[in-house]
Write a structure and sequence with these properties.
single chain; 418 residues; alpha/beta; Rossmann fold; 2 domains; 7-stranded mixed beta sheet; 5-stranded parallel beta sheet; 12 helices; 19% strand
């Protein structure tokens, strides 16, 4: 799927010559813009800021190597205030300003609204289409009943993560009583429903002893929830929480001195490791597509240099979104295969089915539903890790590496293609 550098250079040169006298020749000299539509104010501003720094760092590194087809990449920050309706307006604003690519990840409710907005724009404005690149919104519905030709997800969906997590948990003899705490929206509701099914199917020794939802970004004191966990006698917590809703939950568990294993989707940053520090060793788990100690013994010095440089640039945070690296480089490969950054249909076709050699191995954008298939890692806080997390003094150690075959779930997508 990917062309060799010489082929891409010749393709770009040919396109440049053919456009030399065309009305859009000037546009070919402008940056390739990507709208970053995330919360940059309010309770999840830290999450948006983390993502923005990842994208801008990646764009800068890629620009140092020639950008895409010789054009720089520019990330346009747009504050959606974590609002689906605001995000819809920003999608339209992006289209009106001629921005061909939008990216978002925080909140599947936002992601669903953005899919609808992109589809509506692309039906009405066939000469001004937009492509939505999703780096973190993981509700399976987005690549099932709501799947779209113009939406690509680079993170593992919740059903995929739970598939991998439950296969790991079934072999852990000390997991018997599981408590679920999730945010009250589509992502949290899916985890509640599917995790309950998986426990029934795969963990005969275990039971769900509690299942609670809480408002998104509104809880400042999680101690009442921790009291319920304590009263249930749970030995394991599973949570899809993110941002402050996770770090505050983990801090409350730690403050109560609760002896419980914590399995999370997003435990790797933004205050969560710092909330427990050394006390999180062997307790706080995460399931991700990567963590910083994955590459230590793999001889992948180039990528290690990448995330170390990011840490030097932003000492207060870690390189966390490995999928941003994958997303940006796969977009580059697709645009360079097409030969221009304007033909959204052709770029989407180049992305679907694409195989990419990521630092973690071969990853594939499944053509049927535009869901990334990739290896996953279950890791736990480990004081012996080479790299610490969140400046906590404790890093992550792999407890299970899940190959692609075991991190795949079938899709019900019936995609309409142009």
């Amino acid at each position: 799927m990917q062309q060799n550098p010489k082929t891409r250079l010749l393709t770009g040169l040919a396109v440049g010559l053919s456009l030399a006298t065309s009305p859009i020749a000037h546009a070919e000299d402008d940056p390739i813009r990507i709208s970053f539509i995330e919360p940059l104010s309010g309770p999840f501003a830290n999450v948006g800021d983390l993502g923005l720094k990842h994208f801008r760092f990646t764009a800068e590194k890629m620009n140092e190597s020639g950008g895409i087809l010789g054009r720089d990449i520019k990330i346009i920050a747009m504050d959606n205030k974590q609002s689906p309706s605001e995000s819809v307006q920003l999608v339209q604003r992006s289209a009106d300003e001629g921005i061909k690519f939008v990216t978002q990840g925080n909140g599947s409710n936002v992601g669903g609204a953005m899919i609808e907005a992109v589809e509506r724009n692309n039906r009405r404005n066939k000469d001004n289409k937009v492509l939505y690149l999703n780096y973190a919104a993981v509700d399976p519905a987005l690549t099932n009943e709501q799947c779209s030709f113009y939406h690509f997800r680079f993170d593992a969906a919740s059903d995929i993560k739970l598939e991998a997590l439950s296969n790991y948990m079934k072999d852990q003899e000390d997991i018997n009583k599981i408590f679920l705490v999730n945010m009250d929206y589509s992502h949290g509701h899916f985890i509640s429903k599917r995790m309950t099914e998986l426990v029934d199917e795969r963990l005969p020794q275990a039971e769900i002893v509690g299942d609670v939802m809480h408002p998104i970004g509104q809880v400042r004191d999680f101690s009442p929830y921790v009291s319920r966990i304590q009263q249930s006698g749970a030995d394991t917590l599973v949570s899809g929480n993110w941002g402050n809703d996770l770090s505050l939950l983990v801090r409350a568990i730690d403050s109560a001195g609760l002896d419980i294993k914590i399995h999370t989707f997003y435990g790797g940053g933004l205050g969560t490791p710092a909330a427990v520090g050394l006390r999180g060793e062997g307790i706080l788990h995460q399931i991700t597509e990567w963590h910083s100690d994955v590459n230590v013994d793999e001889g992948l010095e180039e990528y290690e240099n990448w995330f170390r440089e990011f840490k030097q640039r932003y000492p207060e945070i870690d390189w966390y979104f490995h999928r941003v690296y994958n997303q940006m480089h796969m977009l580059k490969a697709a645009i360079e295969e097409v030969g221009n950054a304007e033909d959204i249909d052709a770029i989407a076709r180049a992305l679907e089915g694409m195989k990419f050699e990521s630092p973690t191995g071969t990853i594939t954008m499944r053509a049927k539903d535009h869901q990334m298939l990739q290896p996953l890692y279950i890791s736990v806080m480990d004081a012996g890790a080479k790299y610490d997390a969140d400046n906590s003094g404790v890093g992550w150690g792999t407890v299970a590496q899940i190959p692609v075959e075991q991190a795949t779930v079938e899709t019900t997508c019936n995609m309409r293609r142009p």
